Amino acid sequence: MLQLEELTATQSLAAKPRNRASTEQSIFLAARDLLAEQGFQGFGINAVARRAGCDKQLIYRYFGGLDGLLDAIGADLGNWVKDRIPQDSGGAFLLTYGDLMERLAILFMEALQDDPLVCKIIAWEVSKETPQVRRLSEARTKALAKWLEKMRGSLAPPKGVDAAIMNALLFAAIQHLVISAAASGQFAGVPLKTGKDWDKVAAAVRRLVRAIYG
Questions:
Q1: At a CB cut-off of 8 Å and minimum separation 6, what does 212 contact?
Q2: Partners of 109 in the β-ladder
Q3: Which of 42, 148, 163, 208 gives 20 to 30 Å between its CA and that of 69?
Q4: Separation CA 193–CA 181 (nearest Å)
Q5: Of 35, 36, 25, which Cα lies nearest the Cα of 59?
Q6: 205, 106 in Cβ contact below 8 A?
Q7: Under a CB-based contact definition with an 8 Å cutoff, are residues 71 and 140 in contact?
């Protein structure tokens, strides 16, 4: 009976004219949503095909299978900050390296709050050691480093400040707070639920950046 249903579904899909770009997008979004909702445990060819409403053979044809889908998701994750934060963000108001990092830290925090899949991947980075997680993590990390480098342009940190270490600590703290908020709504007794809570976090981030970079 199941085989008959699958055959009927396949024939029905085959009978419809396909738009490759649209089908690829549907598969990609289905895979991304599925990964965000269920993690790798529920991430498989059949599950993605069901979510996308397509024949699973199209996943192999367009992406080469699950590895190809992961590569596509990794590329998208590598661009997620760039896509959400314009390169000219802040414009002429960014007069110093401190101005730049204050602006980027706040925008990074807001972008991260809007993307549950990125939050999950960051959590997986410290709790799972699998080729799949490593693949996604490396794509995100490299893209973030390139994005920071491009955004800073000719602005330079004050002498004697190890900007790479300081920025790593700053962004790691932001990531951890956003993940903690999603998991429990608080961190170390500090509430992270309302807009007022996050206004306090933003104010603290600004003070930290100013303390580091002047």
A1: 98, 101, 161, 166, 170
A2: none
A3: 148
A4: 7
A5: 25
A6: yes
A7: no
With contact defined as beta carbons under 8 Å apart, do 201 and 177 qualify? Answer: yes
What are the pLDDT tens digits along the chain (214 aa)? 444 444 444 444 444 445 888 999 999 999 988 988 888 888 899 999 999 999 999 999 999 999 899 888 887 877 776 777 665 554 556 689 999 899 889 988 988 888 887 888 788 877 777 888 887 877 777 777 777 787 788 889 999 999 999 999 999 999 999 999 988 999 999 999 999 999 999 999 999 999 999 8
From the number of C-beta atoms within 10 Å of its C-beta (0-12, 13-18, 19+), residue 149 rates as exposed
Q: What is the C-alpha separation between 73 and 77, in angstroms, rounded?
A: 6
Q: Rounded to an integer, what distance in angstroms lies between the CA atom of residue 35 and that of residue 48? A: 9
- Predicted TM-score (pTM) of the model is 0.71
Question: How many H helices and E strands in the chain?
Answer: 11, 2
Give exposure, 78-95, as e/b (b: 16+ Cβ within 10 Å): bebbbeebeeeebeeebe
Place of tokens 């498989």: 44
CA distance 212 to 197: 23
